[in-house]
Write a structure and sequence with these properties.
This protein has 399 residues and is mainly beta.
């Protein structure tokens, strides 16, 4: 059976007893072939997504799914760093180990997370640090994402703060590290472990999520539980958690240093092709807006109304306004903001437009957040291809 033929029914058959195990089943070998082009493929529990690589899986969401305020589970992008990834988790055996520089060690089952801690729910944008990397000039190495390595999801789970307080953080603790069930095939491949400063880990909104959009996490998005760091890039949102460790010193694992770092300055940028003198870990997301409708290259009719529609978000700050230009930036008008699901969510916006004359029109949108942060007209460059938030023009033709 090829992976294109792997249906939800097949998935449920491989999953065994659903109360005890969630699984992707036996993975066909072609599922993890060499790097592919950007073609649509269908993985278990997922709709057709754009394939960047299959070993490990990197799947991008087509932009039309962002017409929905909340991204469906089956359409949320997928990003793993090392292989093999977990393809099944036996909940009778799985425990989240919480320990290190703590008063006691915790071994928490999924049921413990659901019953021993208050349930917290909020909607937050999840976005890969390299979202938009393919637009960098000069080009930079790494996954060549366009704009689809992100989504807006409602997460439910237990506060990380409550879990750490139950374990008891000892004085002198510096960092908290997070490890998942994925492991590198070779000993030379560093395990994917991320860390947060203790003060960050104890913030009110840090979450160990066990549900997305009211359902269990999909296997490819981190079943049975994952870390949620709202407002920060998804590199910290460790999937399929197995261990949380409080440390009396700064964590120096590969995926914190040298990986996932940006220039240590206000813009996180350097001149194109330059090497930064000093770097820091990537962290809070930049302010972004994106036009979803109409699509680039669309043909329109004169004097027909068009609802220009898009999304906007920022790293933990609400969107103050979105302005739209239909003449390549010569003039701007304010868009109408839609339903507000909170400071971590994106917001949809609309702008009514009636093009009067035939010709080519360049559409642009620019968002500003509640503390005045906005988007640059020119792209800002760094050697890792992070923080992309340039105003992105698109062209439509009226005829």
């Amino acid at each position: 059976m090829g992976f294109r033929d792997f249906t939800r029914r097949d998935f449920l058959k491989t999953a065994g007893t659903l109360t005890a195990m969630t699984a992707l089943g036996d993975m066909p070998s072609e599922l993890f072939a060499a790097t592919d082009g950007r073609r649509l493929v269908k993985f278990p529990e997922k709709t057709e997504l754009l394939l960047l690589t299959s070993y490990p899986p990197q799947l991008e969401t087509p932009l039309h799914y962002f017409r929905e305020l909340v991204t469906p589970n089956e359409a949320l992008f997928v990003r793993w760093h090392v292989t093999p990834i977990p393809t099944s988790v036996d909940l009778a055996q799985w425990r989240l180990n919480v320990g290190g520089n703590t008063d006691k060690e915790l071994l928490l089952s999924l049921d413990d997370l659901k019953t021993k801690f208050p349930r917290v729910t909020y909607t937050a944008v999840i976005q890969c640090s390299g979202n938009g990397r393919s637009f960098f000039e000069p080009r930079v190495p790494g996954g060549q994402w366009k704009n689809g390595s992100m989504g807006n999801t409602t997460w439910s789970g237990a506060r990380l703060k409550d879990i750490l307080n139950m374990a008891g953080i000892k004085p002198g603790s510096v960092d908290v590290s997070f490890d998942g069930l994925d492991r590198g095939t070779l000993p030379t491949v560093p395990d994917f472990i991320k860390s947060l400063p203790v003060d960050k880990a104890l913030e009110e909104d840090m979450l160990i999520a066990y549900e997305m959009n009211g359902a269990p996490l999909t296997m490819l998005n981190g079943f049975p539980a994952r870390l949620i760091v709202p407002g920060w890039y998804a590199t910290y949102w460790v999937k399929s958690l197995s261990e949380i460790k409080v440390l009396p010193r700064q964590f120096e694992g590969f995926w914190m240093n040298p990986a996932y770092r940006i220039p240590d300055n206000a813009c996180g940028c350097v001149p194109p092709g330059a090497k930064p003198q000093k770097t820091i870990p990537v962290h809070r997301m930049t302010t972004r807006s994106l036009i979803i409708n109409p699509e680039d290259g669309t043909s329109l009719r004169p004097n027909r109304p068009v609802d220009v529609m898009g999304i906007a978000f920022s790293g933990g700050y609400s969107i103050r306004d979105v302005i739209v230009s239909v003449d390549g930036g010569k003039s701007w008008s304010e868009a109408k903001l839609g339903k507000d699901l909170g400071k971590y969510s994106w917001i949809q916006w609309t702008y009514p437009w009636r093009p009067k004359k035939p010709g080519k029109y360049t559409l642009m949108a620019r968002a500003t957040n509640s503390i005045g942060e906005s988007q640059p007209f020119e792209s800002l460059w760094n050697p890792s291809g992070y923080l992309w938030n340039k105003i992105e023009p698109l062209t439509v033709v009226v005829r």
